[in-house]
């Protein structure tokens, strides 16, 4: 102390500062490591936490499906390399897509914060249950997104795959949870006409008969996510128990063309009525995922149409008077009818109303980056890259399930 006392005040101050700096270096876990994007997001965007807490009332009153896409530094919770179950046709980066900006957006409802999907909490929520996606390849696209998210917590067992890789069953033994896709083109019974031994592209739909490809496994499901639409955009003859009653794109002088909307409405009505009247079924909640729009520009899928945008559209840039919105509206009407009947029997129906949000995402499709060897030159502007905007459907899924179950 006597030596320190003899030092000039300037040197004494420098010595104290040096000691403080050394202590800081020794006690800090990694003081020179720059803050990660994930840490920065958590610091600046705490409202996006998966915890509900005091915000429960706000979230429950909020319309989740009216909002906008906002910048998100955290981006996807998984990558195309970390998830080994991504179908190759949805693995856009594997096939050469270079831009990553389409991953850096998050859906923000106007009136609340939508909690980010938490795979650990979700698996705890569905423990001991079975969840099934019923629908076409876009339904499969959704299931694959959910599978990637859940695989971050537990590696699933590939339990079943049919010869065409359409029916799939995955099992999470640590949570006794089963995830499956029950593949169906039209929900109702339909077959393609064969002319001169070749597929014709013309279909016959029996609106009064349900496709048994999905009804067989229906009784085992606790939660159902049902969707369909894109197969209806082709030549279809509509039947009831008396015969042909109309068509879609048929150009037949003696048959009324009722359009895609009518056929889709009747198919959903038949499917939801079947679920409501299934005595052996135990499903607690049935969710209808509304129409997921395609984004072909400068042509259709078979006339050079493309989807090469790299950022979302704003609300003012989409049209809520479009054919896509019309299909969404009729689906919402059928959900309401099913819910009215279901309330009498203790079954619950609700919407995953993704149409508005996905109208704004022309940037999220595989486009030319889908690696198809049999259809070179065609772009996929129907399905969604994994990872990609479709992951937001699981933010919706968990929140809507939470609302309906609790």
From TrEMBL:
One of its GO terms (molecular function) is O-acetyltransferase activity. Residues 114-399 form the Trichome birefringence-like C-terminal domain. GO terms for cellular component: Golgi apparatus; membrane. It is a single-pass membrane protein. It is found in: Membrane. It comes from the Eukaryota. Residues 61-113 form the Trichome birefringence-like N-terminal domain. Keywords: Membrane, Signal-anchor, Transmembrane, Transmembrane helix. It holds the Pfam family PC-Esterase. Its main location: membrane. InterPro entries: TBL, TBL_C, TBL_N. Belongs to the PC-esterase family. TBL subfamily. PANTHER family: PROTEIN TRICHOME BIREFRINGENCE-LIKE 9-RELATED (PTHR32285), XYLOGLUCAN O-ACETYLTRANSFERASE 2 (PTHR32285:SF28). This is Trichome birefringence-like N-terminal domain-containing protein. It comes from Gossypium trilobum.
């Amino acid at each position: 102390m006597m030596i320190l006392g003899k030092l000039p005040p300037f040197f004494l101050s420098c010595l104290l500062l040096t000691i403080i700096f050394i202590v800081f270096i020794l006690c800090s876990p990694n003081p020179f490591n720059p803050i990660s994007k994930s840490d920065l997001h958590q610091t600046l965007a705490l409202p996006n936490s998966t915890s509900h807490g005091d915000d429960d009332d706000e979230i429950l009153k909020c319309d989740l499906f009216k909002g906008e896409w906002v910048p998100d530094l955290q981006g996807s919770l998984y990558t195309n390399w970390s998830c080994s179950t991504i179908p190759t046709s949805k693995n856009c980066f594997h096939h050469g897509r270079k831009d990553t900006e389409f991953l850096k957006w998050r859906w923000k409802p106007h009136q609340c914060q939508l909690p980010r999907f938490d795979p650990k909490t979700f698996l705890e929520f569905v423990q001991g249950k079975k969840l099934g996606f019923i629908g076409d390849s876009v339904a499969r696209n959704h299931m694959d997104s959910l599978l990637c998210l859940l695989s971050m917590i537990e590696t699933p067992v590939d339990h079943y795959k049919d010869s065409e890789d359409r029916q799939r069953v995955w099992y999470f033994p640590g949570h006794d949870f089963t995830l499956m896709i029950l593949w169906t083109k039209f929900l109702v019974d339909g077959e393609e006409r064969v002319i001169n031994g070749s597929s014709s592209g013309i279909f016959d739909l029996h609106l009064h008969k349900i496709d048994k490809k999905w009804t067989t496994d229906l009784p085992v499901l606790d939660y159902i996510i049902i969707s369909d639409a894109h197969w209806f955009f082709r030549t279809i003859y509509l039947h009831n128990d008396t015969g042909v009653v109309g068509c879609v794109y048929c150009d037949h002088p003696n048959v009324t063309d009722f359009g895609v909307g009518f056929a889709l409405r009747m198919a959903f009505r038949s499917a939801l009525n079947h679920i409501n009247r299934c005595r052996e079924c135990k499903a607690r909640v049935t969710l209808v995922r509304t129409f997921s729009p395609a984004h072909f520009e400068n042509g259709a899928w078979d006339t050079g149409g493309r989807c090469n945008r790299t950022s979302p559209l704003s609300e003012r840039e989409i049209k809520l008077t479009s054919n896509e919105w019309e299909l969404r509206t009729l689906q919402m009407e059928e959900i309401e009818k099913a819910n009215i009947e279901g309330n009498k029997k203790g079954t619950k129906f609700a919407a995953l109303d993704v149409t508005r949000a996905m109208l704004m995402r022309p940037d999220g499709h595989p486009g030319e980056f889908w690696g198809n060897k049999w259809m070179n030159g065609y772009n996929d502007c129907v399905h969604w890259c994994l990872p990609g905007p479709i992951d937001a459907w699981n933010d919706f899924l968990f929140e809507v399930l939470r609302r309906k179950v609790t």
